[in-house]
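Listing S7. Sequence submitted for prediction.
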Amino acid sequence: MTRVQGKEIRYCFEISPSEFSPLYTCLLIVPRTTSPQMYVIKPDLVVKARGRRPPHIYDHSDGKTQLCLWWPKQREWKRGMKFIESYIAWTAEWLWHYEYWLSSGKWEGGGAHPRKRKGKG
């Protein structure tokens, strides 16, 4: 389902990373002036991971998980790219790596994972 709301487009869809995988409900939000954002809204990925926070995400709140799909410093995504060839394909790949991580405990999806800063003190 596609919806235009104010200054953004929202596209809700279901995707499965393999023929043996469950369906995931995702939401792509495309603002006019900033980079798109991809969320998995069902199932709750943290609940599915028995309380573990998946690697390579930006945020998890209210059961929604915002995926980290590309590296902004490398400019891997540019306006004008087709979403089916970028964000949607990258989401399927991310979910495949997520399912592998669930079974192995090892993240094989690559990417940069900034370390949390320790408090000064």
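Caption to Listing S7: primary sequence and predicted structure tokens for the chain studied. The two ends are 50 Å apart (CA to CA). The longest strand covers residues 8-15.
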